[in-house]
Amino acid sequence: MKVFVNGEPRDVPEGTSVAEVVASVTAAVTGVAAALNDEVVRRSSWETTALAHADRIEVLTAVQGG
């Protein structure tokens, strides 16, 4: 199925979770947030939140600097 990850189309298998998409985007374990269709997904729900066709997921990573 096709989803949009950070605005880019991507083909993923049915049942792909938010956690799997986050892991494919960044190796960071802290400072990461995910939003699915403009709604923040709590980290505790990443593993159990499955994506559907045409979902939009944004993965954000905090960076330090000035």
TrEMBL record:
Domain of life, source organism: Bacteria
Protein's name according to its UniProt entry: Sulfur carrier protein
Gene coding for it: thiS
SUPFAM superfamilies per the UniProt record, alphabetical: MoaD/ThiS
Cross-referenced CDD domains: Ubl_ThiS (cd00565)
